[in-house]
Amino acid sequence: MRIPGPVPAGVDPHPSPLPEGEGASTVATAWAREDMDSLSSRGLRRFLEPLDSPQGPLVRMGGETLVNFASNDYLGLASSPTVRAAASAALESHGVGSGASRLVVGDTSAHQRLEARLASFERSEAALLFNSGFAANVGTIQALVGPEDAVFSDALNHASLIDGCRISRARVVVYPHANVEALDQALSSTPARRRLVVTDSVFSMDGDYAPLRELVSVCRAHDAALLVDEAHGTGVLGSRGAGLCEELGLEHAVDVRMGTLSKALGGLGAYICASRPVVELVLNRARPLVFSTALPAALCAAAEAAVDIVERDDALRARLWRNIRRFSDGLRSLGFAAEPRSAIFPVIVGEPGVAVAASRALRARGLLVKAIRPPTVPEGTSRLRFCLSAAHTEGHVDLALQGLRSLGL
Ligand code: PMP
User: Which among 258, 297, 248, 367 is positioned nearest to 110, based on CA atoms?
Assistant: First the structure.
C-alpha cells in the first residue's frame, strides 16, 4: 500500500487556549485524561474540523477546497436555493426558537403541515416529527415496548436503534446481520408480551440492505411488529424516493418506518410513519419528544420544500444513481467488491491507523473521505466511507477513483 506510515497517536490540531492544568482541576478531568490517553494510544481519538462553506460537492476546510465524499446530503438539497428560501420565509414568520415541546406550546402550523406532507409522501396514515433520527429511534422503541417485552435487533443496526433497545428496558436479542433464519429461531424461543424487530433498511456503514421481504414474513409468522429505519433510503430509493420499503412495495407491511430530514432531505430532524393509533401512542410516550423543545418551524418549512423537490423532480435521483453506478463500476475495475445498492460505499482497510492514514493521503489529493473506526464499526473493519451525491459531477467521481487507485490498497 502506498499510503504514508502510521498516524501520530493523536495530535490535537486545535489545542486549548489555556495552559495545561489551568481551569481544569476537576475529578472528571482526571477521568477524561485517562480515557483520552487510551483512545489516542489505540488510534481512536477524534477531532472536530469546521467547514467554512455550506454543504456541497466542493467544501472549504482548513483553507483548502475539497471534493466532499463525507456528507449524507445525497441530493445536494442542504444548500438548495428553494429550500433555503422556504427556511428564510418561515424564519421571518415564526422566529428562531420554538419555545417549548410540541405538547406544551412548541407546535405550529408548519409542524402540522409537514406531518401531513410526509404522510402523503410516504403513503402512510400518519406521520410524527422528531428533532433527529437518533431521537426518533430511541423515542419510538421506548414508547412501543417495555420490561415485559422483547426487541430483536440486527447486529449492524445504527447506534440510535441500539440505544432505543437499551432504554426501552425490554429484553434485547441481537441477531446476526441480515440473518432471517437466526431471527426466526430467536422469535420462536423468546416468549414475551410484545415482540418488536428493529432494523436499518440501508445499513449506514456498509450501504447494504436488510432482507425486508423476508423480515416482513417472519414478523407476520410470529405476530411481531417491525420498525424500519430508512435514514439512508429516504430520497435515494423507490420510484418516489420514499425509501427501500417503497421500492419493495412494503409501505403497508411495515408497522413503523423512520425517515430522517437530515440526509437526502438536506435539513435536520426526522419522522416516523405509522397508523394513527401508533403515532398517538408515540406522541404521548416518547420521552425525546415529550421532554424536548420542538424543531424550529424554519426547519419544518425547509423539509416541506425538500419533500416537494424529491417527489416532483426525479432527475435529481437519476443523477445520484448515475454517480452511484459510475463509482461502483470504477471500484470493481480497481478490484474491489462493489455493488450499486445505495449512496454509501465502504472500502475496508482493517486497522484504524491505516484508515486514518488513507484518509489523510486522499485529503492531500483534495478529497474529503472519512476514516470510520471502532466503535462505529466492529474491530478490524476500519474503513474509508465514500458517500455519493447527485451534486457530484462525473469528474468528481473519477477523482475519487483515481485517489483510491493511488493508495494501492
Ligand atoms: N439511523 C441511521 C441508520 C443513521 O445513519 C443515522 C445518522 N447517522 C441516524 C439514524 C440518526 O439520524 P440523525 O442524524 O437525524 O439523528
Answer: 297
Contact 200, 260 (CB under 8 A): no
> Which pLDDT tens digit goes with each residue over 373-392?
998 999 999 999 999 999 99
Closest by CA position to 18, among listed 28, 9, 7, 29: 29
| Nearest of 139, 292, 287, 131 to residue 227 by alpha carbon | 139
- For residue 133, the CA-to-ligand 1 centroid distance in Å is 5
* pLDDT tens string 156-188: 999 999 999 999 999 999 999 999 999 999 999
- Where do the domains of the chain lie, and which CATH numbers do they carry? 49-74+343-407 (3.90.1150.10), 80-312 (3.40.640.10)
- Extended strands (E) in 275-398: 344-350, 367-368, 370-372, 382-387
> What letters, b where the CB count within 10 A reaches 16 and e where it falls short, cover 280-289?
ebbbeebebb
Average pLDDT per run of 10 along the chain, which is 409 residues long? 51 58 78 94 88 96 97 97 98 97 97 98 98 98 98 97 98 98 98 97 96 98 98 97 97 97 98 98 98 98 98 95 98 95 96 94 97 92 97 98 93
Ligand 1 atom at minimal distance to the Cα of residue 269? 15
232 part of the active site:
yes
Please name which of 266, 270, 271, 263 lies closest in space to residue 302, comparing C-alpha atoms.
266
By alpha-carbon position, which residue is closest to atom 10 of ligand 1? 133
Q: Is 260 in the pocket of ligand 1 (CB under 6 A)?
A: yes
